[in-house]
Every structure is written in C-alpha cells, then in structure tokens.
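Session log. Operator J.P. requested a structure for one protein chain; no other inputs attached. Running the standard single-chain path with token output.
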Amino acid sequence: MLHRIWLGFFLLAFLAGLFQWLFNGDAEVFARMVTAMFDMSGLTVELAIGLIGLLAFWLGIVSLGEASGLVDRLGRLMSPLFTRLMPGVPPGHPAISSMTLNLSANVLGLDNAATPLGIRAMKDLQALNPTTDTATNAQILFLVLNTSSVTLFPVTILLYRAQMGSPDPAQVFIPILIATSCSTLAGLLVTAWVQRLKLTDTVVLAWLAGGFAILLALVSWFATLSADALQRQSSLLANIMILGLIMLFLLVAHRRGINVYETFIEGAKSGFTTAIEIIPYLLAMLVAVGVFRASGALDLLLDGLRGLLAVTGSDLRWIDGMPTALMNPLSGSGARAMMIETMNEFGVDSFQGRMVATMQGSTETTFYVLAVYFGAAGIRHTRHALACGLTADAAGITAAILVSYWFYGGL
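Structure written below.
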C-alpha cells in the first residue's frame, strides 16, 4: 500500500501543478515543486545527522540498562500485557522493555528520547520476524501505539501559545488530552480488530482500567494548576524522569561491577549506522510530501471542501483547521507551520487558534514515524500498518474538532 500512496503523492502533485498553471495562470508552481524536492533532500540529511547524536546517546544508555539487568526486569513486568497484545513476542523478550521505554517517552512528550528508543524497539521486534522485509503484527501494533500515544505534557504547543500572547496557554491542555486519548483508543481497537486480538482478556482490561484511572487522576491534578504552574510542573517532572532514569542505569550498572564507560561506548556505536540506514526511507517520504505541499494540492482540496459544504449552511470554521490536520500525519514541521499560520490569521485564542492547537496535540506524524522506524528495520511491506495508523489519526482529528466545539464553540 505504501508504494501506491507514495506514487499517488507525485501524481496528485503533478496534476495539481497543471491545474494551477492552466487555469490559475501560476507558471511558477513547477519551480516551487522542483525547489521543494531539493530542499527536502537537504533536510533529509540534516535530520539524519541530527539523529546521530541522539541515537548514539540513548542506545548507549539502553545498553547500560541491559547490562545492569534493569531492562530485563522491566520486560518481565510488562510481559503479561504485551504477550497478550502481541502473541508473537515471547515473555521477557528485550523488545518488551524497549517498547515500554519508547511509549513512556511519548507519554511524557520526550520526542528526542522517544525516536531512538522506538527505533531500538522496532529492531528488537525485527529479531523475531521470520520474513525480514514484511512487518509482523507486533511491529504494526507497536507503530500504531507509537504514532497515537497519549501525550500528557504537550509542552511545545503550550510554549507556542505563550509566545504568541495567549494569557492562558494551558487552556487547551484538557481538550488535547481527550483528543489524543481517543486517537490511542481508536488505534488499539482497529488494530486489534484486524489482527483478531482478544481485548476482553482480564489482564488487558486490568491494564487499560489502571491506565485510565491514572489518566483521570492526572487530569484532576492538572486542572487545579494555573497555566504557569502547569508548564513548570510538566517540564520539571519530565526532566527529572529523564535524569532519574539515566542515573538509575548508571549507578546500578556500576554497583554490579560493569565498566559503564566502555558499555556506553559500545552501545552508542550503533547510533551512527542506524542514522545512515534510515536516510533512503526518510528521503522518499519527505520529498513526496514536499512536492505535494508545494503543488498547491492541499489548497485545492480545501477550497473544494468549502464549496461542497457551503450549501449546507452549517458552521464551517473547522475547515480552517484542516491544513494542520491534513499535514499532521505527513510532516511535523509542516503541521506546526500550518498551526502557527492559522493562529496568526485568526488569533491565538480564537476558535480556530485553539482548535489547531488541539489538533496538533492529538496525533503524531504517521508517515514520518513509519518511514524512520520501518526503514531502520529494513521493512518494505507494511501490510495494514498505514491504514491502522491513519485510522487513529482520523479519530484524533475528529475528536479534536468535536471537543473544540464542546469547549470553545460558543466563544
């Protein structure tokens, strides 16, 4: 499926370019498309180089956790849940610990830490893959959970709102939490349905109930904090947890007589190789997205949607947020640019401004994560991964629109 979608980006972009030239008189559209190709090619290398340090550092830290035995303990703790959701993963397998670390980083909004940990988890799952170029059910479920993971601390979005003059940047916090929870639940349900997983299992239900209980408790706590206090507390908690994990791995490994420096170096060496391996996959996806965006295809789609729905006489303010919504699965930087553009046009605390902030926090960049994670593992046939990931995205965006009307519709 992925190769058809990739080809579709280029075909739609070319057709949109022809339309812009022949009917709108925009002869520069093809120059913008070619420029986008070159720009995205350069950006690919920049991103890969930027990942080298992060990958090396976190893979070195994880090596310390493995040598100390802490990662193995974490795997045994999470085995009852993951072995039911992923029957192909044996109890206590290293992939379980890697997935847990990655999903925890996503929950805390630690993007820099989540990516290398996610790549490590995907490679651990690849060790169980009998057909190395085709994604397993476990890999697909992990990817969907990763791209739709609940984010408790959308610190970046709150900072953007604060910088643009919002007197209450954290006002979007609870709507974002609701929308991203819907995305995660939808991703889990649709993947479980496709893979025929039994979610009514007692252990699975107990974990889900415990997770929602913790989520409700955190929401209740956060609701008592002011905007400034929420930003301070979320940032403090996230940073303490990062440093606490690093110190725990270091100290336990040292206490058990492990040479922490040499172990870290050996683990970090794989970071460079991994960053180089993902370049072709990242290049293919970023160039396709860049050309599609430069062609004006997205604008044509939204104009058509407005014209189609105008006859209904319904409230169409939600369409103003669709550039962010449609760009979110494709490009994180593109979606942020769309969000800021909408905030500038309508106001940071307008209905549209708050809605795009909620949309931005509701889902992840599915195409980017798919390209990086599956690319690092050498997977070419993604099976139902993209369809399930985009279903979770659609649920998150729909929830973001509905919750925005619920919280801000009367403003």
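Operator note: The mean pLDDT is 83.
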